[in-house]
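[step 3/7] inverse_fold.run input=structure_tokens len=702
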């Protein structure tokens, strides 16, 4: 195998250069860096972190090179220097890939006066000052600033410097622009006046979402073509999160974005560590084989924006290496070239070293799973980005339940429900895919006809792709459920009662009922469908003397059925994923895990037994499999920053051996030694003595 330096040399300045850009350093300059920062320190950081790629601030809001584009503001501290160009040259001498960062979201006073059409306009008709620095102006992302001015900046950078890509930050705009130009172009295309606020029920808002999508998609094409006209191997790389993929024409992204960068830089509030890996899954949900790079900040990611601070080393390593476990390339970002607090360097170097250690095994394999959670883009795009988190609770709850249950799984976007994509999985889960088109429902139905299994909940398929309410579930026949009424709620003090003997209600320790949901739909089971749980009719939660049920359980609260095609289906007519995300009740975790294991209809391909919370990711090639086990167990698991790492004790990994294969070797990649294993009932049982942070079990077949 070629060493890392040789691999980079072989792919320098080639169309597939990004395949060896796996460990990124990003330095975001501040305006006085030309006078104050130490370039030698940063060149040493490149070496210490084993970075093979770098992203450097070049221009946009501030230029860090001597730009000749009119109104392109050059740092007043630059003098006769070119700090961008100097670091580009230094990185190339280390055989690193180089990407130039531009930020087009704000401009200075002189440009705003000369070109008022470049400035975003508020709803009251006033030009928009920057919310954090009122001395400058917010740009109109949908007009000439991004289609005339910024392309000239991009072309100048690409002509002058030996780079592989241009990376744009904050390029997508900041809400609705109410300029005359935007209003006219929008009305010409859709016939509406600009909407006054985000509102999923407002046709003007939905039209504006589509208009913005077209404008920004066209911008991706324009900038990328401008880059390639000068350097054919290079690309324009827009900064975006996994959720952003629903906002663009997927065919354009497929053509113009050879890899994708996720700008979700760390945990915020009560966010869980697995969110890092979820970022990669969300990209793969749409683009299965596209490389994904995850940006990690060395500072805390909170609303108060301490951008030049340093979070704990363990917190950085958590984020970087949970991404590693799920196949994301590592990228850390530092704001300000001056470094008054160097505590981040060693933890980042350690995290990058761990990434480098597992790359040789993971890079030749593809993610696989028996289970997929459907990423409901068609539903989520009806929500304004700032409100979308409320709609995602259903999916987040199911996600965490699967992590707790130690079930490897992937995401699959409802935008790409092809036969090929669906048939990679034995089971798909629709946590609350409320909005589905007839074609999407047909794709799911055909998948079930081919033997696939389905779990669905709440309003799944009750609306069409435009958000219009159907009279019946689009997937009623698969659910074995006929819609009666609802949803209603929020309802408090609700319960569901165990009914009969079924695998879905196993393991509840003799309980007769468990907590129910807060948003309920009344359904009638159809045919031979089973109802392992029934609703307990509502009763008061106060006064305390009145807190008792008046009626016996009635009405289906869970419907389970054999599809007759070789698969199984489970339907929850209540918000099981959402309420689990809000409350984390152990009974709901068990119920969801029971549903998955029953719907699979077999022992999962991979099981892991042992203490703690472990995030699993399975990869495979013709020669074997690699199972990543990332340790999430920590008393600060749901509130960062994590103070220290808590190693896990022994784990037993059981893997189904493919027909016609036998185990050649079991290897612990991080520990760098052979693992003991045994063979029992067609499965290999591998002993993992413990997990410090990450371990990868690599099993090769004869």
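[step 3/7] decode complete -> sequence:
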């Amino acid at each position: 195998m070629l060493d890392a330096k040789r691999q980079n040399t072989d792919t320098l300045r080639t169309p597939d250069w990004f395949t060896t850009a796996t460990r990124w350093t990003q330095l975001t300059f501040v305006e006085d860096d030309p006078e104050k920062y130490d370039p030698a320190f940063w060149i040493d950081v490149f070496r210490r972190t084993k970075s093979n790629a770098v992203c450097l601030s070049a221009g946009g809001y501030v230029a860090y090179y001597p730009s000749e584009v009119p109104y392109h503001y050059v740092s007043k501290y630059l003098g006769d220097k070119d700090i961008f160009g100097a670091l580009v040259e230094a990185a190339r001498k280390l055989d690193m890939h180089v990407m130039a960062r531009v930020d087009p979201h704000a401009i200075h006073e002189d440009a705003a006066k000369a070109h008022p059409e470049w400035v975003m306009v508020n709803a009251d008709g006033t030009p928009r000052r920057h919310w954090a620095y009122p001395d400058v102006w917010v740009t109109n992302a949908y007009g000439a600033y991004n289609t005339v001015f910024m392309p000239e900046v991009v072309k100048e950078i690409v002509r002058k410097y030996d780079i592989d890509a241009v990376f744009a930050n904050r390029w997508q705009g900041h809400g609705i622009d109410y300029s005359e130009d935007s209003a006219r172009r929008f009305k010409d295309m859709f016939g509406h006046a600009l909407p006054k606020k985000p509102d999923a029920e407002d046709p003007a808002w939905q039209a504006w979402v589509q208009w913005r999508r077209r404008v920004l998609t066209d911008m991706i094409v324009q900038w990328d073509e401008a880059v390639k006209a000068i350097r054919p191997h290079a690309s324009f790389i827009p900064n975006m999160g996994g959720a952003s993929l629903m906002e663009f024409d997927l065919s354009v992204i497929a053509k113009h974005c050879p890899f994708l960068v996720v700008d979700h830089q760390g945990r915020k509030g009560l966010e869980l560590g697995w969110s890092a890996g979820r970022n990669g899954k969300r990209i793969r949900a749409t683009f299965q084989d596209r490389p994904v790079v995850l940006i990690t900040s060395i500072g805390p990611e909170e609303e108060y924006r301490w951008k030049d601070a340093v979070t704990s080393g363990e917190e950085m390593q958590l984020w970087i290496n949970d991404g590693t476990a799920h196949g994301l390339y590592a990228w850390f970002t530092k704001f300000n070239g001056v470094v008054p607090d160097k505590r981040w360097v060693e933890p980042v170097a350690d995290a990058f070293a761990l990434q480098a250690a597992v790359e040789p095994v993971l890079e030749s394999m593809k993610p696989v799973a028996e289970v997929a959670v459907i990423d409901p883009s068609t539903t989520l795009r009806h929500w304004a980005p700032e409100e979308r988190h409320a709609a995602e609770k259903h999916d987040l709850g199911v996600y965490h339940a699967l992590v707790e249950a130690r079930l490897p799984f992937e995401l699959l976007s409802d935008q790409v429900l092809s036969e090929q994509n669906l048939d990679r999985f034995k089971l798909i889960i629709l946590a609350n895919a409320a909005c589905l088109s007839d074609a999407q429902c047909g794709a799911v139905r055909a998948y079930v006809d081919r033997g696939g299994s389905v779990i669905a909940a709440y309003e799944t398929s009750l609306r069409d792709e435009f958000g219009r309410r159907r009279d019946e579930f689009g997937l009623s026949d698969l659910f074995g459920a006929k819609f009666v009424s609802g949803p209603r709620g929020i309802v408090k003090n609700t319960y569901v009662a165990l009914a009969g003997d079924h695998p879905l209600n196993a393991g509840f320790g003799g309980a007769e009922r468990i907590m129910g949901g807060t948003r309920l739909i009344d359904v009638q089971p159809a045919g031979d469908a089973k109802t392992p749980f029934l609703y307990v009719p509502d009763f008061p939660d106060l006064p305390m003397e009145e807190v008792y049920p008046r009626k016996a359980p009635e009405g289906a609260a869970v419907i389970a059925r054999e599809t007759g095609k070789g698969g199984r289906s489970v339907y929850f007519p209540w918000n099981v994923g959402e309420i689990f995300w809000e409350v984390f009740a152990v009974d709901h975790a068990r119920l969801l895990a029971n549903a998955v294991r029953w719907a699979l209809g077999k022992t999962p391909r991979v099981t892991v037994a042992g203490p703690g919370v472990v995030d699993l990711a399975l990869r495979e090639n013709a020669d074997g499999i690699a199972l990543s086990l990332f340790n999430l167990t920590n008393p600060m698991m749901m509130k960062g920053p994590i103070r220290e790492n808590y190693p896990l004790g022994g784990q037993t990994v059981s893997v189904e051996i493919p027909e016609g294969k036998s185990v050649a070797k079991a290897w612990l990649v991080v520990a760098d030694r052979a693992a003991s294993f045994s063979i029992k009932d067609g499965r290999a049982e591998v002993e993992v003595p413990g997990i410090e942070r990450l371990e990868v079990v690599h099993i090769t077949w004869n």
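[step 4/7] annotate
The chain is about 30% helix and 25% strand.
The first strand starts at residue 23 and ends at 28.
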